[in-house]
TrEMBL record:
Region (Disordered): 1-30
Key word Transport present: no
Protein's name according to its UniProt entry: CynX/NimT family MFS transporter
Main localisation: membrane
Length: 429
């Protein structure tokens, strides 16, 4: 697949070079270097994306064992599940400044190192404070990489934003679902020690460091068309852009829906009479839906002048899924799981629009940081509020009503964010 991502310019040589012996010896190495550099950056993107969620989903799979092993209280465990979006919001803000100073490649490389160190240290930290600190280190690496992945795609593949965002989103979804599915069996294979089951994911993160090492010192624009002045341009007043706000709210609401789904959908099915093993399988189906669709949706989105219809279609799938959970949760469980899996693919759509709503690399950095940091802040209360409503009402009627109500503004701001505008133009007005 990586070979297919290489442009025709990197795969062909100019036939006129045979007239000049000097050019015959000079051109092929240049073309070969470009081709391998492109393949290396694609490999780096894929490996980085694979590592952006296992730190979270592997812990979710072993949370009960971690609680018992560390003597963690229920309230602290609840706080632990809310830490990821908080860290994404807080640390994601740092990404633009770090990228301007050190270059996006260097920051992503450092992010992979931070993920590796955090995942390796936290199981053996010796107590709850150390576990939380090491988790925060890994989440910091994830946060800055989250923000800079769309920037890397825009910088290196400006004419293939859709296909590369699709590849990156598909790898991210694959890493998410794989960690959720194999962490427990892998822990059992390692002797049942939860510490080994968590630490093993550091190996995947360490592998992701390697492709980024050659880009640590690379702060140059990818092509001549991207003038250096744009890389060093003054910061945009991003909060003046209505599109930036719409995209931030869209990102936050889709993240809210995704965290609610991951945290509570299995419980909804179990309370409706679905066996626990089947409920877990239904959740896995919902998550796996993101693997193929995460590749397809960005490619379709970049070919449309307005991405609003896709946001509406995904929202309708979510509304139908929630209606099914409310009225006949057990009878149509497989259909509702599939529909909610489709609806959760608003995430790759949001990433694609980040790359499309800014013209310059600097604009993408700021828009990505603003949309993701603001969005993750918006997403924090949702899963907690669902738990409170469920506990106090004794059923799922009110929580599902809340999920349905949140889907309406998500569709509305998705239409606004999908308009063919750029944040540079809006911020300059």
């Amino acid at each position: 697949m990586m070979g297919l991502m290489v442009s025709e310019e990197t795969r062909t040589t100019n036939p006129t070079t045979v007239r000049s012996p000097a050019r015959v010896t000079d051109e092929p190495p240049v073309s070969s270097t470009r081709a391998w550099t492109t393949r290396l950056i694609v490999l780096g993107i894929v490996l980085a994306a694979l590592n952006l969620r296992p730190a979270i989903t592997s812990l979710g799979a072993l949370l009960e064992e971690v609680r018992d092993g560390l003597g963690m209280s229920g309230s602290v465990a609840g706080l632990l599940t809310s830490v990821p979006p908080l860290c994404f919001a807080v640390f994601g803000v740092m990404a633009p400044r770090l990228a301007r100073r050190f270059g996006p490649g260097a920051v992503v490389c450092a992010g992979m190192v931070a993920i590796t160190a955090g995942l390796l240290i936290r199981p053996y930290a010796g107590g709850t404070p150390g576990f939380l600190a090491a988790s925060a280190l890994a989440l910091m690496g994830i946060a800055v990489s989250n923000v800079l992945m769309p920037v890397i795609v825009k910088r290196w593949f400006p004419d293939r934003v859709g296909s590369m965002t699709g590849l990156y989103s598909m790898a991210l979804a694959l890493g998410t679902s794989t960690a959720a599915a194999v962490t427990v069996p892998m822990t059992d294979a390692l002797g049942g020690n939860w510490q080994s089951g968590l630490a093993v994911w550091a190996g995947l993160a360490a592998a992701a460091v390697l492709p980024w090492i050659p880009f640590v010192r690379d702060r140059r624009p990818k092509s001549a068309e991207q003038a250096p002045a744009r890389e060093d341009a003054p910061a945009l007043r991003i909060t003046r852009s209505r599109t930036a706000w719409a995209l931030a709210v869209f990102f936050g609401l889709q993240a809210t829906a995704a965290y609610i789904t991951m945290g509570w959908m299995a419980q909804i099915f179990q309370d409706a009479g679905v066996p626990a093993s089947t409920a877990g399988l239904l959740l896995a189906v919902t998550m796996v839906m993101g693997v193929p669709l995460a590749f397809v949706i960005p490619r379709v989105a970049t070919r449309l002048p307005h991405q609003g219809p896709i946001a509406l279609a995904l929202g309708v799938c979510g509304l139908v899924g929630y209606a099914g959970l409310y009225f006949v949760p057990a009878a149509g469980a497989w259909a509702w799981a599939l529909l909610l899996g489709v609806s959760n693919c608003a995430f790759p759509l949001a990433l694609t629009m980040v790359g499309m709503r800014a013209r310059t690399g600097a604009g993408v950095v700021q828009l990505s940081a603003f949309a993701q940091s603001t969005g993750y802040l918006i997403s924090i209360p949702g899963p907690l509020l669902v738990g409170v409503l469920y506990q106090h009402s004794g059923g799922w009627g009110l929580p599902i009503a809340l999920m349905t109500a949140l889907m309406i503004p998500q569709m509305a701001v998705g239409v606004l964010a999908g308009r063919n505008r750029t944040v540079e133009d809006e911020a300059a007005r």
